Amino acid sequence: WYRPTRVLHCFAGAEHGFREGSAKWPADHADSMPAVADIGIGSPTGIANAVGAKFPHRYRRALYMMDWSFGRILAVHLRPHGATYTADFETFLQGRALNVTDLAVSPDGALYFITGGRGTQSGLYRVTYTGNDPGATQPLPAPVASPERTSRRELGELARAESPDALAGLWPSLGSADHTLRFAARVALERQPLESWKER
Description:
Layout: E1 5-7, E2 37-40, E3 44-49, H1 57-60, E4 63-67, E5 72-81, E6 84-94, E7 100-105, E8 111-117, E9 120-127, H2 147-158, H3 166-170, H4 179-191
């Protein structure tokens, strides 16, 4: 199965269908968590967030993805959606033969990235914001928690170990309208001894 470059939300027990060769699950497989965003064809080399960057607010909240083949860095803008996220993305920067391999935000608020690989010339680049957006230096507000994401995290804890009180916390989520919560609850249930829930 062809797989485009994707942004995935990897929480405790999440399954995205990665298998060897043609055993991969198709993206719409019922037992697979859907992608947060489908980027398309590319050669991803890594991701980083922009916490600490002196960029306008929109770009300080972004997730940055490097694409070696197409010489670009994408800014992925995540939006809370129930117990998970959705996203849109844009090309943040692109250049010819800009085979990006790594990036990081420095304490000076700039984004640094390097290029190279496969015998090509390596380079170090610095990206700074020169505008006057006041949001570039103000502290970011804390993310707003949602009941669904809180429940998903709690279910993730239940998926890590057996717990005598697990059923009370996970059983209602098996029927949730939120696919991610149903998925997380099922994974947590599988972690509990069968004898504790087979009759139920």
